[in-house]
Amino acid sequence: MGKVSVTIAGHNEEDAIEKCVLSLWEQSHPPDEIIVVSDGSTDSTREKIRNLLRRRLIHGAHSTELRGGKSAAVNLALRYCTGDIIINVDCDCSFDYHAIKNILHQFDNPQVGAASNNILVRNWDANLLTIFQAIEYIISISLGKHALFMLGQMSCASGAFSAFRRTALNEAGGFDSGGGEDLDVTLRLRHYNWKIGYAADSICYTDVPTNLAALIRQRFRWERDAIRLRFRKYRHFINPFDHRVKFREFFHQFEFLLFNVVAILILPVYLAWLFYSYGSNGWFILIAAQMVLIIMDLITFTLSAIATNKFKAAPFWPYLLGYSIFYVNLMRIVRLYSYIQEWVFKTSYYDTYSPSKVHRVRE
Question: Does the CA dihedral 15-20-25-27 come out positive or negative?
């Protein structure tokens, strides 16, 4: 397997960085080295990582005066890594005891260039919104990514915790600037014919937004970046007239286009047609459709809970009805708005998640 390096890049992470590092050293298979980069932090992150270096808890502590964005910070960390397998983690995460050990098994296959793991919500009990997000994560990641992996269609190695074969990452050119760096690098690895693994038994715990405004900002960024990357930067995957076309990429690209983009964009048209054609009876049709969706959510949640040993489903059952009716429909509205923003105004190019100088280079 070779040497294992962990990179941690963060901006203003004074409260989280030490907990993250300590969690890594508690692993059943601890890393051979940990490299930390402070990306233009204005708090005490630099002092924190300097202290961690003095205590020999990390092997490299690097800091930039100006923020360059996560991709630039990770690429800086990669310059100082010596491992054959590079694990990239977010500062605000903690890890199950066997997280590193279990994800490394994916690299027994020499064709695997990257592997993602299972992500559970750590602060699920903060409020109703975090409970809904915990349900969403268990369905979309624990079940959704597992299904895509079985079909050979894994298209996003999560930024929270993912492992990369160094030779594959070098061939792909590292991380590109801008948001959605996890989706970006995974699509590029697929372009270079590397397989993407998924370790269901490698579990990472992350905190999710606890207020609605923060959640909506996060999802706007995720959805806009997905549109930019899939249908601008990597449109050659599905363009039959491009010599770089990848026919094996059609499935995950068209699956996203059909079930995410098209389904959301035609929703207002469908609702207008429904009430124009059936008047007030349209409400009965919508209620019937919602009941079917509730049943489907119950089934997928049950399957997800069965597939994830570390997940305790009991506290979430009373909230599934609210999740299906309120949260899922709210996310549909968020996706609709963000897709229109990105298609028409290219809003992702001005997102403050990446510094303005990064956007200027990418334009």
Answer: positive
Asked if residues 231 and 147 have their Cβ atoms less than 8 Å apart, the reply is no
Q: Give the Cα separation of 243 and 236 in Å (integer).
A: 8
Round to whole Å and give the CA distance between 90 and 109.
26
Please give the Cα distance from 71 to 113 (Å, whole number).
Answer: 18
Instruction: Please give the helix or strand (H or E) that residue 167 lies within, else none.
Output: helix 166-172
As given in the structure block, the two tokens for residue 98 are 């066997």
Q: How far apart are CA 209 and CA 133, in angstroms?
A: 9
> 86-123, pLDDT tens digit by residue?
999 999 899 999 999 999 999 999 999 999 999 999 99
Q: Work out the average pLDDT over 308-314.
A: 91
pLDDT at 81 over 90: yes
**Helix, coil or strand: residue 94:** strand
Q: DSSP state, 194?
A: -
Run of H or E including 139: none
Sheet holding 93-95, edge to edge: 60-64, 33-39, 4-10, 85-89, 161-165, 112-121, 195-206, 93-95
pLDDT at residue 356 greater than cutoff 80: no
Residue 74 is predicted with a pLDDT of 96
Instruction: Please report where in the chains the tokens 């590079």 appear, as a residue.
Output: 86
CA distance 214 to 191: 33
Relative to beta strand 60-64, strand 93-95 is unpaired
| Model pLDDT for residues 208-256, shown as the tens digit of each residue | 999 999 999 999 999 999 999 999 999 988 888 888 887 888 889 989 9
